[in-house]
Known about the structure:
This protein has no helices and 5 strands. Strand 1 (about 15-20) and strand 2 form a beta hairpin. By secondary structure, it is mainly β. Helices cover about 0% and strands about 55% of the residues. It has a 5-stranded antiparallel sheet with strand order 4-3-2-1-5, with no helix packed on it. It has strands at about 15-20, 25-35, 40-45, 50-55, 60.
Amino acid sequence: MTVSAPPATSPARPVAVQVRIGGRWIAGLQVGRRIGTAGADEVLVSHHGHLVWVDRQAVRGA
Length: 62
C-alpha cells in the first residue's frame, strides 16, 4: 500500500515570513502549505532559492 501526502496549497503570491532555526529567526517566503504525513501543519519556505518544509509552529507572519 502506498501512502502519499495530501496536495499542497499555494498563496496567490509568496508571503514574507520568518522561520525559527537554531534559536534565530531568519527571513523567507511562504510559497506553499500542507498537512504533513504525521498530521502536522507544514509551510513550504523559500530562503535564498532553497525550499524546505517546516512545521507551522516554527513560522511567524504566515
